[in-house]
Amino acid sequence: xxxxxxxxxxxxxxxxxxxxxxxxxxxxxxxxxxxxxxxxxxxxxxxxxxxxxxxxxxxxxxxxxxxxxxxxxxxxxxxxxxxxxxxxxxxxxxxxxxxxxx
Length: 102
Hints:
Layout: H1 3-22, H2 26-48, H3 57-63, H4 68-75, H5 78-87, H6 89-98
């Protein structure tokens, strides 16, 4: 899969999560929303890998995960996440719920 594939998958899954949320299927909506975030983070990571470069094995091990906090780190977004969490308490509360997703 490439960056565009992950972006398209994220867009599709968030629409499905919204439909489940409207149908009061909260467990399914939560699952698909978490999967959406995973796909979006993997799209960010894929953007950092240049075409024809052979990725480091350690990097590959880190990105083949469902751990959102680990993916945030690999994507280089810890600083932005901390900054946003400090500025927006609602965001911080929501992130604390989302990061538990597996």
